[in-house]
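Working notes for the structural subgroup meeting. M.R. asked for a predicted model of this chain before we commit to crystallization trials. I am recording the input and output together here so anyone reviewing the notebook later can reproduce the run.

Input as submitted:
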Amino acid sequence: MDRSELDLLLADVSQWRAFRSSHLNDYRLILEIAERNLDAATTEIPTDVVQVAGSHGIELAGSASVEALSERSAAQAWLLSYVEGNLAPVSDEPELFCDAIWRLAETDVLPRLEAYRFSLAALDAIYGKSLLTILPLLHPGHSCVWEVLPVFWDLLPGLDADTGLLIQNLPHIHDIVGEDLIAGVFHGSVREFGESHPETAELVCVGLLDEGTQSAAEMTSCLMVGAAKARPRHMYDVALELSESNRATSASAAIVALSDMDYSDPKLDGHVGQFIEKLGVLESNEHLVGAVALAYCNLARQGHELGDKLVQLSQHTDPVARHHLSSLLLGRSQKEDDECWITICLMNLARTTDLSHARTLKNLDGTLSGLVKSDTSVANRFLTRWALEHSEELEQHPIHEAFRSTFLQLLGLREPLEFLVTAWLNTDLLPLHRAAAQMLREASLVLSVRGDLPPVLSAQVLARTSSINRVFILRKVLGWTYGIDNTSLFGLALSVLQGADSDPLLEGQVAAAFGNALGYDYPHSCEEYLRGLGESEGSITRRVATAALSKIEKYRKEREGRPYLKELAPPSDRLAQYDREIAKAVARSYKQAREKKPGLLQLASRQMLKFKCPYVFRGPDGKLRRGELHEHSESMELPRSDSIAPTGHALMLHKFRAETKAEVRSGLEKQEE
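Returned structure, recorded in token form:
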């Protein structure tokens, strides 16, 4: 194949790759046979191998060629021959250049890193193109960016590169990597380069600081930390002096580098105290707040006791400082660390963090979801503070959405979530009532999809609650959770009776709630629910269910025989909504049935033949059998008050929501009188 044919192949990358792939198989065959014959000291090479090698310009003759091919220098010569014979100039095409590197490394002739280094050297020698000249051509959306970059940071620690190219490339790669999870690998490679080339790293730092960009500053910090491992005292002095620079980016880079240095090194013994004092002076500089906050957090990760400083950060108005603190708290456990500053910082962050700071909220959510397993009380205190501080935003941004992982952890344990919402409902604070209702609605939805039992009120909280306060909680349940799944609503209302002694006042209020409110709005499902209460239920529950059923039956008898007023019929849009909900319920029922059945049985569990009304099917024994058709239906009730008396319904909910404990107590006392 001459050069013109090769140029035509280059016009189509896919053809070019297929061409190279087929040739690589030939070369692998040559090397495999050569290595296999080495131990046997074979003096002759198989004819087919000689022919394959000759067709590609490699001359093999006698045992000398076999021995030479097995040596490392000969392997490099073979790679060079491959480069010269099969790679056209890559010009400014990063994709072809990268593909060449990976293809060469895949031959397994040399160890991976050595193959990378030699391949790059060969390409550079033949075509004058090095990896550092290709990197500036990459951009975040480039097709081979994540193929080229791993090669670069694999080679960087041992790379003897020009300082100018490093100054140009390091910030560029930092911008491409951004905040990707693999960014830590790149930063670690830069630190290793600084450790292996401290003098070059110091020169590169000077050039990067002249750039004055944030990316250049972060690369400077990595290089300084790496160089400090080789020259700790020298780099500490350089960074400490640089921290007083008038340029904010230079001072910030030095501060972050100082906080990441290894102060366990004997050459830096006692210097951490000097640096912390320096940070206390730099705190007042508003341009360095973010760097100082990150420095305190980095030092805390190393085990230095800075609880007071971290508490001050949690009160800071700068969002960057709070974000660094939230990153430090992520994954820490109050019980493991036994440090009260964690709780104080979390409470302060609940007050100072805004909903627009999505990254900080994500870190806080991760911290709280971990604390739920070890110390639920801290998570509950944080969520309570958050609901109170962000009451105006709760309607558009429910608390279970802002802290999704924490909510799912609480829901998985069930008892902590029920404890939290019951405690919230047992207060006179409207924001907590709204937050509790949001959590109960979401919990009811998630549990119904899982097929689990609906949520109930916490018996632990109710055990410490008086009968009047239980009535107060019942009214909050009715006022705030109307509209959720009927069964969940009935269960929440009935769970007010958990652990209660015989109390006519409480029993009468629960029976009235079922008879007058729930039984009126949902007569069919409520009656079915009350009749379904088993004998295992307590005597109080049975008495309440019997009283509620009598109220519902009395109302139904009074209503029977009276003329129907079509003016009371629900509007057409409500009927359409009802039909849509029925369709969703039926679809959900079929989906659950399919999920409970193995896939193959869904396809061929039995054969049906319709025969008039009944049907005929083939049973497990292979015989035809006759079956009867059965009706299947699924229904749901919408609240009657919402369509018959929407104003009265709204007033009832408003009254239940707005009532305070004092008003409920006063109203009940008047009823007794």
